[in-house]
Amino acid sequence: MHTLFWIAVFASVGCAAVALTEQWEKFKKTHEKNYPHPGTDAYHYAIFQRSLKEVNEHNAKYEAGEVTYSIKLIHLSDIPDDQWPQLPSLPISDNFVEHDISEDVEKEAIPEAIDWREKGYVTHVKDQGTNCGDSYIFAAVASLEAFNKRANGELVSLSEQNIRECYQNSTSVCNGQSPSNVIGFIVRNQSSLVDPEDTYPFNQTFGQCKFNKTGAVNTHVQGHKFFVGEDKLKEVVGTVGPVTVIIHSSPAFQSAHNGVFYDPTCKKSDKFDHAVLVVGYGTELGQDYWIIKNSWGTAWGDGGYLKMARNRDGNCHIGDWNIYPI
């Protein structure tokens, strides 16, 4: 009997080891990882196992109601934490003057919940890649796509590559800028025109500016409005449309999956380092949330989107810096 018991134990351990190895191979294939040297592969495999354990333990707490969100493995899950790429700080000026939003939001009652995806104002989730810190371009263009829908009645996916290659040199573009600068550039330098994505597609590299005003979309944008605060953010998102916001991308944010994301480690002193688009808000099981669209592809979050905690003191800077096109 004891012999049969230990045979069963060893068989179980062996099956678990095989399953773990299969997960590792699947992870490498999914994220296009290749470690030809056995020692290098073993090194990253050990980190992967630790990450998988952390995911399973965190998600067990999520299922038990001890935390508000789940997490998942990401492309960095086999890399030491201290070697994760650092996002560049996005410049937040101390002398920004808030604009008056009252004339834009007083026309309609503010709904308790809204999702602009359901109204046809949001294009597909895009992927900025890992080689350039230009989330501010993707978030600004995303808000402009919604503005163009409101102005022209048609949802068109606009070209981030148009801005990437025509705005400034690649070094300046990738080191972080303000989304407001992007709107200003489009107004001043391109007469409110932006090429559609299908004629000027995204490319990880940078080439010469190929802006073609003949086939470009006239968004009719004239500028932007800047404001702060979650209460005002609800007013604008609820009555005007999606809003570009700058947040702090904590390690937990980068691996977040489902539920309502709230990171207690985020502090007011954390840097602003990532721009996203708020496309709606609501309440789930008593938890208020924002719906954000990211630019890290559909593998991130919940199909490229995430619910972030709302009315929790601007967790991870949500609501602390907001703009929308006018």
UniProtKB/TrEMBL annotation:
<dbReference type="Pfam" id="PF00112">
    <property type="entry name" value="Peptidase_C1"/>
</dbReference>
<dbReference type="InterPro" id="IPR013201">
    <property type="entry name" value="Prot_inhib_I29"/>
</dbReference>
<feature type="domain" description="Cathepsin propeptide inhibitor">
    <location>
        <begin position="24"/>
        <end position="84"/>
    </location>
</feature>
<dbReference type="InterPro" id="IPR038765">
    <property type="entry name" value="Papain-like_cys_pep_sf"/>
</dbReference>
<dbReference type="GO" id="GO:0006508">
    <property type="term" value="P:proteolysis"/>
</dbReference>
<feature type="signal peptide">
    <location>
        <begin position="1"/>
        <end position="16"/>
    </location>
</feature>
<keyword id="KW-1015">Disulfide bond</keyword>
<dbReference type="GO" id="GO:0008234">
    <property type="term" value="F:cysteine-type peptidase activity"/>
</dbReference>
<dbReference type="Pfam" id="PF08246">
    <property type="entry name" value="Inhibitor_I29"/>
</dbReference>
<feature type="domain" description="Peptidase C1A papain C-terminal">
    <location>
        <begin position="110"/>
        <end position="326"/>
    </location>
</feature>
<dbReference type="InterPro" id="IPR025661">
    <property type="entry name" value="Pept_asp_AS"/>
</dbReference>
<comment type="similarity">
    <text>Belongs to the peptidase C1 family.</text>
</comment>
<dbReference type="InterPro" id="IPR039417">
    <property type="entry name" value="Peptidase_C1A_papain-like"/>
</dbReference>
<dbReference type="InterPro" id="IPR000668">
    <property type="entry name" value="Peptidase_C1A_C"/>
</dbReference>
<keyword id="KW-0732">Signal</keyword>
<dbReference type="InterPro" id="IPR013128">
    <property type="entry name" value="Peptidase_C1A"/>
</dbReference>
<protein>
    <submittedName>
        <fullName>Pept_C1 domain-containing protein</fullName>
    </submittedName>
</protein>
